[in-house]
Each structure stands twice: as structure tokens, then as C-alpha cells.
Amino acid sequence: MQNLKVTLIQSPLYWQDPDANLAMFEEKIWQINEATDLIILPEMFSTGFSMQAEKLAEPMNFRVFKWMKQMAEQTKAVICGSFIAKEDNKYYNRLIWMKPDGQYSSYDKRHLFRMANEHEHYSAGKKKLIETLKGWLICPLICYDLRFPVWSRNVPEGATGQTSYDLAIYIANWPAPRVNAWDILLKARSVENLCYTIGVNRIGTDGNHVDYNGHSAIITPKGENLYEAEDREEIRTFSLDPAEVTGLREKFPAYMDADKFTIHH
Question: How far is the first Cα of the chain from the last one, in angstroms, to the nearest whole number?
């Protein structure tokens, strides 16, 4: 594992306006003034958290996907964010992990936000994504997933008993009235999984009059804030030290006593 440079972009979003959002994020990406390995955008970064799936969904290899491919190629960094995807006449809140060479993987949001009827408009994902970058194992997840520790659990893998990831990422449209839960749960996920946790949330007000106040954060494996954004636009790059993960796991290998379980779909 090498030091990992991560860039968090906390921003308002234009409501249901992909062209405006892509132009805005392109501008913000060009404001990153240092080399970075990973650029993280919020959930549904091209539209805001909309249930207008039929109107806004795009197939793979269309506008948003191609934009992510172009940005990754130009910045030489992985670009991570979710959009409304259509596949086989189903709609997904789909996170794309786009690499600079055009290779990509995806994760479909597993826990759909019932209180906004997301489960009535979108299909739930069935499998987690674990990606590798500079020797780090990274698990990107989406918003409401943060409330479900079993799905996020860093399960020891195979005979070695090694944990399955070193960094969890939650991209979100997490409303201001519940931001206290966001703050607490990001820390809880770090502590229980002995990993770094990154949360990238939006700010501003969406077309449903829901307010967001950011609190994007990087939490260390010990549950300490390396960074917490205020309620304003932020583009910040940080270097994550792998020794924070490996050192803690050597000194305090709680994962070796983790409960074994499997999730039935």
C-alpha cells in the first residue's frame, strides 16, 4: 500500500439538469491544483436525488458515463460518483468507478431510501464492489447504505483472516435534519471496520425543498476526524497513510474476533 491522494468535492447540484451539473463539476475538477489518485463526487451528481427515473435515466456509455471516462483520462485519477442508470428496462442508482485507462466497475445502491419511495422507482443492487488502487482495497457505497452495518461489514476473507477492505466511501444526498446521524455513523463504520471512511455529501436545496448541509468527512481508523467540511462548497485533497490502517490492525486486531456470517439475498 502506498499513500493515497483523495479529493472530495462538496457542492450544490442543479436540479434534474445533467448538462449544468457536468459543466460545473468539470470546472471544479480543473480547480484541483495538485496530483490526486481519486476524485469523489456525491450521489446522483448529475441530477440531484430525483425519483424521475424514467425521465432522467441514461444507458451505460452515454453522456454521464462518457463524461466520467473523459475526466478520468484527463486527470489521470479514478472518478467515483453515482447517476441514474437504465439497464434491461430497470433503473438503478449506480455508482461508477472509472479508471484513467477507461476500465470501470459499478455498484448499484443496495439499500433504497424508503422514506422518499426510492424502492418504488429503482432496483436494488445485490453485490458489493471492492476495488484496488495503489495497493488499497476500497469499498464504495451509497448514502442510505451507511445505516446498515451488516452490509458495510469488513468481513475477514479466506484462511488468512485478512479484512476485505481498507477504505469505505459513502457518497450521499444526506439531508441536513439528519446530519447528526451521518456524523455518528461515518465514525462508527471506521471504528468497527478498522478502516478509513470517507463521506461525500452535497449542500444546497433540491427541487423537493430538501436542505443539505454537507459535513463531508474523512475519518481515520481510530474514529478521528482527519477532515470535516462546513456547509459550503469545498474541493479538498488529502493524503491517506496506509500505516494508520496496518498499524492499528497489528496492535488491535479486533477483526480476528469478528462474527462470521453470510448475507442471503
Answer: 33
Residue-wise pLDDT for 9-39, tens only, equals: 999 999 999 999 999 999 999 999 999 999 9
- CB-based contact 90:123 (threshold 8 Å): yes
| 100-124 per-position pLDDT tens digit | 999 999 999 999 999 999 999 999 9
CATH H superfamily, domain 4-257 = Carbon-nitrogen hydrolase (3.60.110.10)
Active site residues: 43, 109, 143
Cell of 63: 453522456
The yes-or-no verdict on residue 158 having pLDDT over 80 is no
Does the pLDDT value for residue 182 go beyond 80? yes
Using H for helix, E for strand and C for coil, what is the string for the chain?
CCCEEEEEEECCCCCCCHHHHHHHHHHHHHCCCCCCCEEECCCCCCCCCCCCHHHHCECCCCHHHHHHHHHHHHHCCEEEEEEEEEECCEEEEEEEEECCCCCEEEEECCCCCHHHCHHHHCCCCCCCCCEEECCEEEEEEEHHHHHCHHHHCCCCECCCCECCCCEEEEECCCCHHHHHHHHHHHHHHHHHHCCEEEEECCEEECCCCCEEECCCEEECCCCCEEEECCCCCEEEEEEECHHHHHHHHHHCCHHHHCCCCCCCC
Q: What is the pTM of this model?
A: 0.97
Residue 155 confidence (pLDDT): 80
> Strand 131-133 to strand 225-228: parallel, antiparallel, or no bridges (unpaired)?
unpaired
